[in-house]
């Protein structure tokens, strides 16, 4: 066995050397190496070395001996001989020979080596298939061996999971799938050659024949022959994945041939090639649906590219409808497409149903996307959503009908609907607008009364009382994305705001829900504008009580900024009278400013400047975000209140001028106050600039320069007194001055 192993390893090394030509080459040497490697392969294939005509630039090779006498023929023959000789080792069941293995380790080693040689032989064959003459492989003997190996995959189950090493037969099955993949990946010139190849391989029919058996095991407990695409764990998962990848590649190649050469054909004029192609397409779709609906994301995900490729064919079918002057609406298109010998559209209803089923997460899914397995589940579903968006762009009416049927089929009340069903349905609803044309899809789809009625029904339900956090967050996402609807249905707002600001939102036990609710509430308030006027007092009071009691429902600093900005927008953008604005703003700012003063008076401030600097910088940032609700035409009464933020900000900067975050947030606030207070901010600027320039470093000197630029651009000559004392110290700090002294 050792010499066979050495032989296979040598072949592998030679193959890598003459195929992977640019691995160890530079840009200048790569073309020469590629030419040399091509010449070597030509010799192995029995072709004359390529000679380039210096006049025409044409390169031509010719056979020097019959294909069956070439080196490549002998190599293929040797690999098949090794496979025949060592294939029986893969049929040995180690579990039945445990006692023998314990008594004789040599026997166990020989068994492993025999299996390895058989698998290596087939893997090596797959590498040569990509460039040797196809006639050496496309014969009954070799194809029979390939199918026999592919059908021999071992059984799956709890004891043979994907994480465990596959047995010998399963490895052979995977290697056989690679061989078929290489055959289908070959470049072929000429119309219908890939069709001829698929007919010769009988690929889909071979796979489908295995699915006609009942279950994955015989009554005696033996595995049935073939890769079972119906019963989970009836076949080792790695072999099923390999077959799914094969179906994906074969399907894409077949659809490409169909689109390029046969899509324009009609059912009334079908020759033998067209009949064969249509038959292959029908078989392909059956195999595709078996893989797509398989209860494993690696298997199902392997054919998602084929699902996306089907949308390309659907698009070309629609183009054909346009060419036939038949593209008036979906009903006319459906009638026209039904007359085609094959139409991808005819499979769309089943596709949508299968995609929806696969979009549902397992019942025990944790929704912890930082975990690798959960992240893979989410990536898989992101690809499914991409398919849905493409289909919506092609057939919006049909997809809207499917969406309506899906939502109406949910068990009621929605508060008790299974999480997987509710989450998947809300996902379809949320992403539906992304496929709508013309953009923006959100505005376009909200003109559709059917879609609006779905949203109204959702808001009128008890979905906000669902127990799972993901359903709550997704519902709030949907409500915010389609918030324009709420302007026409104000009666829906109170229950939504109550949910988002109460124990099912801002006060939810889970931090992720609280965080998401902070952001979405801000987005909702921005979108609704003056429509939020009736809810200002309740909303501001609720948010303020939440901010003032951080121990009850801890909120991250960044999320707190969202809440302060929300309050600012509620006060400044909803049409409140100036006295009401002043009253609410004072009520919000007073406790916040007092909390900053308490920190400034703490005896531990200088002992732990890092911790207290972080607290103070966050507090100053909150004031800056609060001011975002006020425009450049801020009334004097409001300016008077906002000026208090300048005073407390200066006190913070004077306490910890060396803290970078404090300096940064103070500059953010000043930039906001320049907009709100106008010239009223200038008297305070010399004190700010002196500290900022003195303590700035290489990281924030540009921020200081931006502040100076803003003052100059906003006020012009009026800013001179405020900037006069700062100019020379600032230039001394600049890197190009030659005398800078950054505080590192």
From TrEMBL:
The species this protein was found in: Ditylum brightwellii
Subcellular location: Nucleus; Cytoplasm
Similarity-based family: Belongs to the exportin family.
UniProt keyword RNA-binding, yes or no: yes
GO molecular function: small GTPase binding; tRNA binding
Domain annotation Exportin-T C-terminal: ranges: 345-734
Chief location category: nucleus
Pfam hit, one: Exportin-T
Coiled-coil region: none
UniProt protein name: Exportin-T
């Amino acid at each position: 066995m050792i010499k066979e192993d050495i032989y296979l390893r040598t072949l592998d090394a030679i193959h890598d050397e003459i195929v992977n030509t640019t691995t160890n080459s530079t840009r200048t040497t790569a073309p020469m190496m590629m030419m040399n490697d091509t010449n070597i392969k030509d010799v192995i294939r029995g072709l004359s070395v390529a000679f380039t005509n210096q006049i025409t630039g044409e390169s031509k090779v010719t056979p020097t001996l019959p294909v069956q006498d070439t080196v490549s023929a002998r190599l293929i023959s040797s690999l098949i001989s090794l496979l025949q000789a060592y294939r029986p080792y893969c049929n040995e069941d180690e579990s039945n020979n445990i006692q023998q293995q314990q008594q004789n380790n040599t026997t166990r080693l020989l068994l492993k080596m025999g299996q390895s040689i058989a698998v290596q032989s087939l893997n090596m064959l797959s590498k040569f298939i990509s460039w040797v003459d196809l006639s050496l492989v496309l014969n009954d003997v070799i194809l029979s061996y390939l199918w026999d190996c592919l059908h021999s995959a071992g059984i799956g189950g709890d004891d043979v999971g994907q994480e465990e090493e596959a047995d010998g037969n399963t490895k052979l099955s995977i290697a056989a799938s690679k061989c078929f993949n290489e055959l289908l990946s070959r470049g072929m010139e000429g119309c219908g050659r890939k069709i001829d190849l698929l007919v010769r391989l009988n690929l889909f029919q071979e796979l489908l024949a295995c699915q006609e058996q009942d279950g994955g095991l015989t009554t005696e407990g033996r595995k049935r022959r073939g890769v079972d695409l119906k019963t989970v764990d009836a076949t080792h998962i790695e072999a099923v994945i390999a077959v799914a990848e094969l179906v994906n590649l074969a399907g894409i190649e077949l659809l490409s041939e169909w689109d390029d050469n046969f899509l324009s054909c009609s059912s009334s004029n079908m020759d033998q090639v067209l009949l064969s192609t249509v038959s292959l397409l029908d078989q392909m779709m059956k195999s595709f649906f078996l893989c797509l609906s398989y209860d494993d994301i690696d298997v199902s995900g392997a054919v998602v590219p084929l699902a996306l490729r089907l949308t390309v064919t659907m698009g070309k079918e629609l183009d054909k409808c346009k060419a036939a002057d038949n593209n008036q609406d979906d009903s006319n298109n459906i009638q026209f497409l039904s007359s085609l010998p094959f139409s991808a559209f005819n499979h769309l209803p089943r596709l949508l149903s299968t995609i929806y089923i696969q979009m549902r997460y397992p019942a025990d899914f944790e929704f912890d996307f930082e975990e690798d397995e959960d992240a893979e589940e989410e990536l898989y579903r992101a690809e499914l959503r991409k398919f849905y968006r493409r289909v919506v762009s092609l057939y919006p009416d049909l997809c809207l009908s499917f969406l309506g049927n899906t939502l109406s089929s949910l068990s009621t009340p929605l508060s008790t609907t299974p999480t997987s069903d509710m989450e998947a349905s809300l996902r379809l609803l949320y992403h539906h607008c992304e496929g709508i044309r013309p953009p923006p899809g959100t505005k376009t789809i909200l003109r559709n009364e059917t879609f609006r009625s779905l949203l109204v029904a959702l808001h009128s339900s008890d979905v906000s009382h669902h127990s799972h956090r993901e359903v709550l967050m997704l519902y709030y996402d949907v409500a915010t994305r389609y918030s324009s609807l709420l302007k026409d249905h104000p009666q829906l707002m109170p229950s939504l705001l109550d949910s988002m600001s109460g124990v099912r939102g801002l006060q939810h036990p889970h931090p992720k829900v609280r965080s998401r609710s902070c952001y979405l509430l801000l987005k909702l308030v921005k979108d609704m504008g003056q429509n939020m006027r009736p809810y200002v007092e309740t909303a501001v009071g609720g948010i303020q009580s939440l901010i003032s009691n951080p121990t009850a429902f801890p909120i991250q600093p960044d999320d707190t900024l969202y809440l302060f900005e929300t309050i600012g927008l509620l006060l400044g953008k909803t049409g409140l009278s100036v006295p009401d604005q002043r009253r609410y703003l004072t009520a919000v700012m007073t406790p916040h400013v007092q909390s900053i003063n308490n920190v400034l008076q703490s005896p531990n401030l200088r002992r732990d400047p890092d911790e207290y600097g972080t607290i103070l910088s966050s507090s100053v940032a909150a004031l800056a975000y609060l001011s975002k609700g006020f425009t450049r035409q801020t009334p004097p009464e409001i300016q008077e209140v906002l000026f208090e933020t300048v005073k407390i900000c200066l006190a913070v900067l004077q306490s910890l001028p060396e803290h970078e975050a404090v300096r940064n947030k103070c500059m953010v606030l000043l930039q906001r106050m320049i907009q709100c207070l106008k010239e009223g901010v200038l008297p305070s600027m010399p004190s700010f600039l002196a500290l900022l320039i003195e303590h700035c470093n290489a990281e924030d000197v540009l921020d200081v320069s931006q502040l100076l630029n803003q003052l100059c651009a906003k006020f012009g000559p009026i800013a001179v007194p405020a900037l006069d004392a700062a100019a020379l110290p600032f230039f001394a700090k600049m890197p190009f001055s030659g005398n800078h002294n950054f505080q590192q």
